[in-house]
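Cross-check.
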Amino acid sequence: MNKNGDENTAPPPYNNINKPLSTDKKKIRIKLPKNKIKKQNNKINNINTNNTNMCISNTINDNPIIKFTEKINCSKALKVAKLSNSELKDLFWNKDEINKAYNEKWSWTTYLTSIRRFLKIIVSKNGKIENTYKYGKYNYDGRLYVNGFGVQSLQNKIRNYICNDYYNELDISNCHPSLLVYLCEENNIYCDTFKNYVLNRKNLLEKHNLDKFDILKALNTDINYKKKNNDFYNLLIGELDFIKKSLKEKIELPKTDNKKNPLSSSVNKLLLRHEGLIIQEIIKKLGEKNIGFPLFDSVYFDKNISVDINEINELEFIKKYKYIKFDIKDTIEAIKDFELPEDFDEKKKIINM
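Predicted model, tokenized:
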């Protein structure tokens, strides 16, 4: 559970990292107990019978792809591993980056220990490691999180630096706001202001001196406070409050033990269900062997394969969601192949390895 009391977080990422995840070399898939699948599907399908448009059924994927072989550049990983703690922090640490697995900022001390342990393990395996992913605590659907610590667990700078040679990123643009508008329209819920934001995000954020995190924070908070002299934001948070309450009236939202923001947490779980289904469809479309790993609302895929973004966005399953669009991001190295400090001793041992 994170400090906000949200149970929909990743499993603890720092435990048992030296233990093998599996001895089975075949593709591993989660097999859910039939009684739990039936129970969960019954909850999902318990909707207002007057609403014939609600496309919420079948959001449980009882056979998801959850095992991936992650690859990194060993030469680059060794360079990172040989840096001192202060050098590593100066080059790769972003104190403002949010850990999406926990929706909170990273702890440098814990993160540093995990990085060094992970680099030691993956370098010892010649730059390849098989990792198993699983749903968040108490969940049988939604977003996948690495079991232990993997490339998914790294901050953007270091992840793209050591993975750039192998992967590009296929990312859902503005994922949760886009899904929310889709669900509103399927349930006849007024959402004109929020829809305007989804369709014109860049211009509206610039015009009203906001960033996307202001909107995502409002989406995940039950009680939002107005901003002085910002009519657009104030109108949007009022509409968000109406949307969340309307969804609760029209369908049975997923359960949550988040006591601070219970309604927003339940809506978030609903959005994650759909996000998870979309990501699984993309993994199947590109082929399991071409996927490095899932990264929440995106996947890292083999940059040697050709991916037509127009074809992806025209898939019937994607078009169903109407506002969902994918973008391809070249994992351009956050910093170019850097030079080690002049006084660096190539013969010195890798710190903490």
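The longest strand covers residues 128-135. Confidence is low (pLDDT under 50) at residues 1-9, 11-34, 36-58. Passed to J.P. for a second look.
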